[in-house]
Write a structure and sequence with these properties.
The protein is mainly alpha-helical and 80 residues long. It contains three helices and no strands.
Length: 80
């Protein structure tokens, strides 16, 4: 059975959409880290922080969905 790390590596190599999502997720993570370094956020910065968190989570969910689908396809292929 494939591990998540193995599946992620295979998806990185074979799926441009997965790679783009992963890069975008990482970029959002960096932006969020920069905002969190500040001791006090303005209301606008707080809204931006929440927006980034939601977008980052949505991308993480999408990445997990790719892994799940890849695993399911592998299991279906093995069952044949």
């Amino acid at each position: 059975m494939l591990t998540d790390d193995t599946i992620v590596e295979q998806l990185r190599q074979s799926n441009p959409e997965f790679r783009e999502l992963e890069v975008s997720h990482h970029r959002l993570d960096l932006e969020l880290n920069e905002l969190q370094k500040r001791h006090v956020l303005t209301p606008a910065e707080e809204l931006e922080r929440k927006r980034i968190q939601k977008e980052k989570l949505a991308k993480k969910d999408k990445l997990a969905e790719f892994v799940r689908l890849y695993r399911e396809q592998g299991l279906q292929s093995a069952a044949r």
